[in-house]
Design brief:
Length: 89
């Protein structure tokens, strides 16, 4: 069975949400009927980004701290997921 890009993207979001939820973080799945909340981010390089800039893309926002052992433990699977799906944009 072939899946549309939107269904595949939703599956990736669900997968990443499951990874994050396993660490006790609440997952939020944005849809056309319920878009992600308007949020502005400051990236590591100091540039600003907001949710409008990310519309139509699969996005995982993970809040963590280097002193949090659970947070540090969850990073390798998140990085692996990013590497696996990077080519899909």
């Amino acid at each position: 069975m072939a899946f549309t890009p939107r269904v595949r993207a939703a599956a990736v979001v669900a997968l990443l949400a499951a990874i994050v939820a396993g660490a006790g973080v609440t997952a939020y799945l944005a849809t056309a009927a319920r878009p992600a909340p308007a949020v502005a981010y400051t990236l590591l390089d100091g540039t600003r980004l907001n949710t409008r800039d990310l519309q139509g893309k699969v996005v995982l926002v993970n809040f963590w701290a280097s002193r949090c052992t659970v947070c540090v433990h969850e990073m390798p699977p998140i990085v692996a997921s990013h590497e696996r799906f990077r080519a899909r944009g």
